[in-house]
């Protein structure tokens, strides 16, 4: 019996994430990258009036959910809460900062700093980031973190 695709992806992703420091950096930087990317999408004008769930960040979350649903229903369900919380957080932060601070600059700053952190972590690890081999690993990173949470609380993914 062959392993499920989610198991194969998580195992392959995990191969370049063995170092404790690199893992810790990923626990900080992967969510920061996700949040800032959603924030960047949130700032793009939407086809109707932008609101808490009518924005491009919500579309990004929906597309991510479709991808996760093909891999693991529990990961998909968990990401509903994670992605939803990030969209809501971006909505309220956008409302609080605009027009005083252009929100796009906040998101770009977080995005760049978090990616620098990721590359520092991989420098410590001594292995290239997985997404350089296959872009789908950009979506596997959040699932990799979520699967650790599931394992800790005893939820099968």
Overall radius of gyration: 16 Å
Estimate nothing, just give the exact number of structural domains.
1
How much of the sequence lies in strands comes to: under 5%
Mean pLDDT: 95
Q: State the share of residues found in helices, binned by percent.
A: over 70%
Q: Low-confidence stretches at least 5 residues in length (pLDDT < 50)?
A: none
How many helical stretches? Answer: 6
Element order: H for helix, E for strand: HHHHHH
Annotation, overall tally of beta strands: 0
Structural class: mainly alpha
Shape: globular
- Sheet having the most strands: none
What separation lies between the terminal Cα atoms?
A: 18 Å
| Oligomer category | single chain
Detailed description of the structure:
The chain is mostly helical. It is 74% helix and 0% strand. It has six helices and no strands. The model has no long low-confidence stretch (mean pLDDT 95). The protein has one domain. The two termini are 18 Å apart.
What does the secondary structure layout of this molecule look like, with pairings?
Layout: H1 5-15, H2 20-43, H3 56-71, H4 73-97, H5 103-125, H6 137-153
Keywords:
single chain; 157 residues; mainly alpha; 6 helices; 0% strand
Summarize the structure.
By secondary structure, this protein is mostly helical. It contains six helices and no strands.
